[in-house]
């Protein structure tokens, strides 16, 4: 029986006995322009295979392996394996291999097996018709009508139209939209509501796709559904899908998602208030940048910009203004420009490995090249240090032998980083340029005068220069020709930068300068938004004050080359997660009860309420910590008629308040971490108290803890719900590393104890332990700290090296404020702020740790006011940008304000100098332990060594103290510390040191003592030796008797 179809001249019998299809040379079965392969005609759920293998449908819909799922004994195993292997690389390529193998089949029943497979997958029979016809007529002008009918039946009308006219220009015009959507997908899918959008996207999605998205949302949630929706949109062949998507976002009031698609368009829905979400919802605001180039700061550390010989400078556009807003405009336009350029970075690489400056870097340096004092303000990651290197090069050429350059970094970690960069750069550029560096303890080993005389460039920490000026090694700043201050926004208050610049300004404004030439000043910063301000006028005043302190009349920002800047600097997208607090927590109740009992005990000893006026102090708050500090301060100078009673009361109150402090700390840890971490913190403290030989008061206090320890252990081992903030943090990390397993994260926290707690949490979490977290904290000063007691420079370097390495030793760095400024972590693409909020400058610095392309900066908090503060900082950042532009546009007014500030500050300094220094009394004073009020020594026995070390020349002191080996013995300015010195009550008094050949010299720190006037018996407390009002003799070797060799108590 035969049956013909006049429209197609195809008999029914041809369906069951088709000729083997043939292909013309070069003809493929996929249409790459629309990301639609033949295998994507149908889009079923991913089938499950034997041995646990699954086939993804995320890219093209139906996978080839899904057709090969039913039994097909005619296929050889190696053919199947080849198809599966190709599919892991490209579904389209796998489809080509599959169809080629179908054409080679000649076994009986192969076609029926294919039909059965297609029917099992739900594909209409017209697909088999399509496969049964000869492809030899496909000549570009006579497309296969059967394929068109099949595509029409499956609702691929756009592709049908393209095939009919063999014109794919319309489909090609949507390519940029697909690329844009692909880039923003990780953020986009978290902002949209698929179920709402489907009501508006019926014209660009198929009915079956809509049903599948709804099913996914019911089973897996909105994010999974959003990912499927985005995937369907990217494969849509409807010309207007992008316009329909934007219209749908507008109708559903999804402002943030819409702005991702249109970063340069102000939403007409600005009337919506950010932050109206219910507690627990995710609140997000985003900063947008779409770029393809990467900014490899490892390359920058090799003295230049990371370029290859084939790279050419990107086209720059002229802009009237600078700032983030200007940089981030024109997302789709830049996509087209990048497509035309084919990627790549800006600048050129010359012979010998030397790297030239980028154009925006030249723009920043131009005022400096003209010899002007300048504050260079540019985003983090743009290569301001590279600009500084170029400035040094140019300055050395212009000044010749008279050049003497100082580059200063505020932190030792940053000093090491920059010093290495300077050495490597000038070793390549000009090995004859002499470079040396001084920081920290190096200051007592090398004379600043010698270093200055024998080098062209000196890299310093600023305190080194302050000390050298005070000691007369640097008689005047006129010894230098150029000073570069990294992170110059710190030039305020008592910071070493401000001390240096005060000396500079005093010389400049003095009439006795005698024609001396002061050095050129260059400041580097990512933000000049210092101080407190509410509006643009106040911000301008603060900026002028900073510029006045730096004597810099020029603020250099990027105006012209903003497009080039944007192609290299990747500003992280900002997101906010507001998390619900724990509803009930038995741990908190138990700790509150213990604290109330301790307060009750303290009141039986003394009326502690009379010692401090701080009210409304809740347990587990910073205000309670302030109350403890205030009470302890008053206890130190508490005087009673009976000295023994005074000693007993003061020691008891100290113990009570110290225990209250630790319980308060534990509550804060419990709020941000696990109950387990808070309990371990408390347990460590209690054990330390017991090991120190605790007295009756301390035994009573530790008994409170021991009595509840069993219950607390039960709570910490899973007896209560986990912290919701940790759940959110875990979700964010899991999602980020699921999307990109090469992610490098920096997690900022407020305290060292919390850093340790989160590290333990990650290491004990099955889903997070692969991150191998590292901790980066400061060196620490308090010996009584139990956790996070500080890191040495070597340990910091080890943690950073592990994090920066490419062998994934560590994928996340948990850091305190030590890492928020200056330290380059170029691989970082995720910055997490865990209840970590500061001012505008801190916000800019922290956000800037995310250097990699596509970076995110996420704030996690259960406090809405904290999130609001960060959003307020973002608004302040815009105010600062406008203030900078206005000052640049009105240089005369800026200069006038600067002169007013400079002269006003000079008058204040002169008035302070005119006030006679209060003479130190010659009377005798007694030093009492500030904890137990026991006698330590008399001031007559104290000698001052090198204006900084206070040595007691009374060997009987050791009978009133105990010593322990120093955990970190080292020397400083000729003094080598060997042991720690403690009162019998446990308070840290200082160190035992050796000087030259003299051993066992007790060196005290004044903050551990109360000073009692032996005549008036008045007591005073001092935190610094420089603040004391009594005189002390200078240390002389003749003061040491030949028989000086005190026997330490534990020797």
How far do the termini sit from each other? 114 Å
Quantity of strands, as a count? 26
The whole-number mean of residue pLDDT values reads 76
The residue ranges in which pLDDT falls below 50 over 5 or more consecutive positions are: 1-75, 121-155, 264-354, 781-788
Radius of gyration, CA atoms, in whole angstroms? 36 Å
Largest sheet: 7 strands, mixed
Mass-distribution shape: globular
Can you summarize this structure?
By secondary structure, the chain is α/β, with parallel strands linked by helices.
What labels describe this entry?
1051 residues; seven-stranded mixed β-sheet; seven-stranded parallel β-sheet; 37 helices; 44% helix; 11% strand; disordered N terminus; isopeptide bond; hydrolase activity; Activating signal cointegrator 1 complex subunit 3; immunity
3D architecture notes:
With 1051 residues, the chain is α/β, with parallel strands linked by helices. The chain has 37 helices and 26 strands. The protein has a seven-stranded mixed β-sheet, with helices on both faces. Strands 4-5-3-6-7-2-8 form a seven-stranded parallel β-sheet. A hairpin with a 5-residue loop joins strand 24 (1009-1013) and strand 25. Helix 25 crosses helix 36 and helix 29 (643-672) runs antiparallel to helix 30. The chain is globular, with a radius of gyration of 36 Å.
